[in-house]
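ok so for the tutorial part 2 we go from a plain amino acid sequence to predicted structure tokens. step 1 is just haveing the sequence, like this:
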Amino acid sequence: MADVYFMGNCAVDSKLGTSAVFRADAEVKQAMIKSSKKIIALADQSKLGRTEAFKVADLEKIDVLITDLASNDIQLEGFRNSGLQLV
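step 2 — the prediction. this is what the tokens look like for a chain of 87 residues:
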């Protein structure tokens, strides 16, 4: 079991959650989410508001979203009421 999982992302959407380009990548991420106490998603602004073919997780599974945008940036508006911490 991992204490903290820092998860890179292909795409993060405020409604659909996180997704991956490849099935194997999504499966590994899902397994890590299940076995981790805290999930920190990493996504630069090019990954936000996008979806890919393979669903990884709903945003409810993510504790923290770290991005290169300022936490008050308008592009993060959809993520504000999702229950995750924006950094």
